[in-house]
Specification:
With 404 residues, the chain is an alpha+beta fold. The chain has two domains: 175 residues, no CATH class; 215 residues, no CATH class. The protein has eleven helices and 16 strands. It starts with a strand and ends with a helix. Keywords: DNA recombination, DNA-binding, Transposition. This is Transposase.
């Protein structure tokens, strides 16, 4: 199995400058390759340029510009070209599927923040020895950069990536590991219901309150963004030091919320995996749930529109994004795989409207957001607990059907 490790790098001033130049030159290579594909399709009878053709040109590009492109790893530049090729493959896949395609676009310096080295030892080297307290990563054109390795790396390092987040630099290792020993069986089965008022409710009646990290930082974010909006829109090289500090403050607050959300997701998922052998959850279509409502044209007024609840839906969408369900479910699946636990996603329809006692399903069974009262048998419980119980039952049915 594959696992990723992310460590903070501690480069010197010159190394940080070299890392920035490496990102800039790889960004130029990406944009140049994209421009070549666009020009070939538009002006050369719709000719398609592929990765193999552009990879062959790398040798000439490096010899033509040895001061910039020639100083970096050949393999990392090939990885950058593959990144562009994957973007075009995703574009054509969405076109064939009838979705909104999203044509690959040029990357600015602030939107190109990662360089990948496809193989340890080819342009890079992860240097971690037990007898040396200082861990370093060697990067071609940069040198040996110190790394804050806060935990041991178990397995064989396959790929190494260098990532910039604000003013910090990180190294991301993709490691191949043997399947770890599963955790001891507990005999416990659980269903979970994800929500807004409570982040998570289990079929056992436990509630995990929603941390609302984004809402708690909303006032600081609003103040920082208002301060940033006061600066005039000018070119990047014309910005003042105060402007740059305002930009960094907004980015820093967003990164803090992101880290808080990840920390909460990791801790909640780990607690579930340690206590339960089987976990069932709703197969939520988060992208569809957070879509803006369609406009309603007013038939009596050409060019006018009727109220469609967009204001209320905006608040709901913000709460859904703040909860971070997608991140949590991804982390839960990864931790369950490592621990030998079973996770199953079930259809979420009517899970909070079906009575667990008699099976009656109806919207009238849920008079409020938190209360469940069956109009058929009179069963009363918390609506989220009822939903979690029905999710667990649906998950067990699906597991039995798969086993059969």
């Amino acid at each position: 199995m594959m696992r990723a490790y992310k460590f903070l790098m501690r480069p010197t001033v010159r190394q940080a400058q070299a890392l920035g130049e490496m990102l800039c030159d790889h960004c130029s290579l990406y944009n140049g390759a994209l421009q070549e594909r666009r020009d070939a399709y538009r002006h050369a009878s719709k000719t398609t340029v592929r990765y193999g053709q552009q990879s062959v040109q790398l040798k000439d590009i490096r010899s033509f510009d040895p001061a910039r492109q020639g100083r970096w790893s050949f393999s990392s530049q090939q990885a950058t070209l593959r990144r562009l090729d994957k973007a075009f493959a995703a574009f054509f896949r969405r076109v064939k599927a009838g979705e909104k395609p999203g044509y690959p676009r040029f990357r600015s310096g602030k939107r190109f923040d990662i360089v990948e080295f496809p193989k340890d030892g080819d342009g890079c080297r992860w240097d971690s020895t037990p007898h040396d307290p200082v861990t370093r990563v060697r990067l071609q054109g940069v040198g040996h950069v110190r790394v804050h390795q806060h935990r041991p790396v178990a397995g064989t390092v396959k790929t190494i990536s260098v990532k910039r987040e604000g003013r910090r630099w990180f190294v991301v290792l993709s490691v191949e590991q043997v399947q770890p020993e599963p955790l001891p069986a507990t005999g416990s089965l659980v269903g979970i219901d994800l929500g807004i008022a409570n982040f998570l409710t289990t079929s056992d009646g436990e509630f995990v309150p929603s941390p609302r990290h984004g809402a708690k930082s909303a006032a600081k974010l609003e103040a920082a963004q208002q301060a940033l909006s006061r600066f005039p829109r000018v070119r990047r090289d014309k910005r003042t030091a105060n402007h740059r500090r305002a930009v960094e403050k907004v980015a820093k607050l967003h990164r803090k919320v992101r880290r808080q959300r990840l920390d909460h997701a990791h801790k909640t998922a780990l607690d579930l995996v340690r206590r339960h052998d089987f976990i069932a959850h709703e197969d939520l279509k988060i992208r569809n749930m957070s879509k803006a409502p369609a406009p309603k044209p007013d038939p009596g007024m050409p060019g006018g529109f009727l109220p469609n609840g967009a204001g209320a839906k905006t608040g709901l969408n913000r709460s859904i994004a703040d909860a971070g369900w997608g991140v949590f479910l991804t982390i839960l699946a990864a931790k369950a795989e490592s621990a030998g636990r079973e996770v199953i996603a079930v259809d979420p329809r009517n899970t909070s409207r079906r009575c667990p006692a008699c099976g009656h399903t109806g919207a009238e069974n849920r008079p409020t957001q938190a209360k469940f009262h069956c109009v058929s048998c009179g069963h009363t419980a918390h609506a989220d607990t009822v939903g979690a119980i029905n999710v667990l039952r649906a998950g067990l049915v699906r597991r039995e059907a798969a086993a059969a």
